[in-house]
Write the structure tokens for this entry.
Amino acid sequence: MQNLDAVLKQHAAQSDIDADVARAVNGLALAAASISKLIRTPDSATNLGAIKGSANADGDDQKALDVLADDVITAQLHAAGVAIYLSEEQDTPIPLHADGTLIVASDPLDGSSNIDTNVSIGTIFSIMLAVGGPLQCGRDQLAAGFFVYGPQTTLLLTLGDGVLAFQMDDDGCFCDMGWQVALPADTQEFGINASNQRHWYAPVKAYIDACLDGRDGELKRNYNMRWVGSLVADAWRIFRRGGVFLYPADRRDGYSQGRLRLVYEANPVAMLVEQAGGKATNGTESILDIQPQDLHERVAFIFGSMNEVDVIIGYHS
Ligand code: AFP
């Protein structure tokens, strides 16, 4: 089995841009290995879930690990010669190298509310050409992926030609899992935070009601539900066995466009989903075709098994 380094070397041989992409992904892998070690190292003096007293661009409390992960990633992207870093933890774009060719956008620590509950958390990233500027459609991504810091430390990666999966060994090396990543087209498993049901708009409410009605309902099949509350953990499960994930827009203040951020959460996951044969939408439009207007803008995010996402789109039309 090839390890990540070998896969990136092969990719780098194709063109200069690909060589820069390979360097950036390698830098992110080094950062992820450090973050994974930080999470696993017993240290009673440091509470990684401690609130830093500062807030990110969206007013979310920053946890100690949010800031630590952001610092580690910034340092590795600087070492990798990246031009600009876009982060959930930084209000504005961070210039790194004026002669760099790439922009890397990242959610350095996804699932912060799960940090001190020993539930899987992760790092999400998107790589684009610097010439396109910070607000590019997801279709313009050159590469995307996410790391999961769970029972295993893993990476799901696309370089624009299918999806590859890696697991980190004790030396911090990411080894190919030999898994042909292909999203099953059908599923009977959905993921949504059902505590928000009273705030949902009619299409999502009707779909989830139909799922809960089971075999006697209009969808004529029984459904299961899973919700971890970490996008990376819910996404990894869906890549593994199929399913649909919904974080829709709802009537709560601040949620008229959902909760997840388009540039560094939805776009990279959507690229992986489409590369694995699935579908990603806001209910009416493909996520990858949405033109971002703001670095931290939110988007209603629905993705997963192709045929089931089509059913959900049907409820929106
Ligand atoms: P945090 O990083 O603030 O924990 O948010 C995690 C997240 O962005 C995403 O990973 C989850 O899918 C979603 O929010 C969970 O949201 P709820 O807490 O509303 O279920």
